Amino acid sequence: QVQLVESGGGLVQAGGSLRLSCAASGRFSYYDMGWFRQAPGKEREFVAAIVSSGGSTEYANFVKGRFTISRDNAKNMMYLQMGSLKPEDTAIYYCAAGVFGDSPSLYNYWGQGTQVTVSS
User: Please, which residues have CB within 8 angstroms of residue 54's CB and are 6 or more apart in sequence?
Assistant: First the structure.
């Protein structure tokens, strides 16, 4: 099992940057990890994923070139560096642990989420 806690969300102007963190306890290095987001009235959507070793990543098309996912297994941490933020990036961002891929159903463990708001 693994427990996940996100942090780093906040209010930022369009074009700005934020770094989200996901602190894990339990068998963190065993799991592939992902970031998802959910905006009001919309379904949860895939943002990025990283394999357990950190050696491979995947991104949603709408964040390619703007966001970078990374992890530090020695610290039980995962990160999402977000740049060139747009108002449409406004959502609650969740970290998740499970099997590498872009479907929420692949992930068994979820954090409580952190709010990101991008003002225009």
Answer: 70, 71, 73
Query: Distances in Å between the alpha carbon of 40 and those of 16, 45, 90?
Result: 21, 12, 9
How far lies 77's CA from each of 16, 19, 42, 71, 109, in Å? 23, 12, 28, 6, 15
pLDDT at 85: 98
Q: Say what the pLDDT of residue 106 is.
A: 98
Half-sphere exposure (Cβ direction) of 64: Cα atoms closer than 13 Å = 6
Count of CB atoms within 10 A of residue 56's CB? Answer: 11
Long-range contacts, 16-19 (Cβ 8 Å, 24+):
16/85, 16/118, 17/81, 17/82, 17/83, 17/84, 17/85, 18/82, 18/85, 18/116, 19/79, 19/80, 19/81, 19/82
Would you say 5 and 22 are in contact if contact means Cβ atoms under 8 Å apart?
Answer: yes
